[in-house]
Design brief:
The protein contains six helices and no strands. With about 120 residues, it is mainly α. It has one domain. Helix 3 runs antiparallel to helix 4. The radius of gyration is 20 Å and the shape is flat.
C-alpha cells in the first residue's frame, strides 16, 4: 500500500487548529501594517477579559477571543491599498477617531445583564 507522507496528507486534507489560523492571520496583518501590531490580540484579550467577568463559559470565551481577534480581518488588503492608506491625508481619519472616542466618553457604561432565574 502506497500511503502519502505527512506533507502530502496535509495538502490533501489540511488540518490546522482554528486558533493557530487566527493567530497566523493576526501576525500577517502585523507584517502588512506596522501601525496595528498586536492590535487584534490586545482587542481579543480585552474582550475575553470582559466576557470572563460576565461569567461566560470556556467555549463562549474561546468564541469571543476568536471573534475579537478577527474583528479587523477586512483590513488585510493588497499592498497597493495599504500604501495608499499610509500616504493619504490622515486628518479625516483622526477627526473620525476623535468623534468615536468622544462618543465612548460621553456615554454611560453598559450595565451587565444578569441571567434570569
Amino acid at each position: 500500500m502506497n500511503r502519502p507522507g505527512w506533507a502530502a496528507a496535509m495538502i490533501i486534507n489540511p488540518q490546522v487548529p482554528l486558533h493557530r489560523l487566527i493567530l497566523s492571520l493576526s501576525k500577517a496583518l502585523d507584517c502588512a501594517d506596522a501601525e496595528v501590531v498586536d492590535h487584534q490580540l490586545r482587542t481579543a484579550y480585552v474582550a475575553t477579559a470582559l466576557a470572563r467577568q460576565m461569567d461566560f463559559t470556556k467555549e463562549e470565551l474561546l468564541h469571543v477571543f476568536h471573534a475579537a481577534a478577527l474583528h479587523d480581518i477586512g483590513m488585510m488588503q493588497a499592498e497597493e491599498r495599504l500604501q495608499a492608506m499610509r500616504h493619504r491625508d490622515r486628518q479625516a481619519e483622526y477627526a473620525t477617531g476623535q468623534r468615536h472616542l468622544a462618543r465612548i466618553r460621553d456615554n454611560p457604561p453598559v450595565p451587565v445583564v444578569q441571567p434570569v432565574g
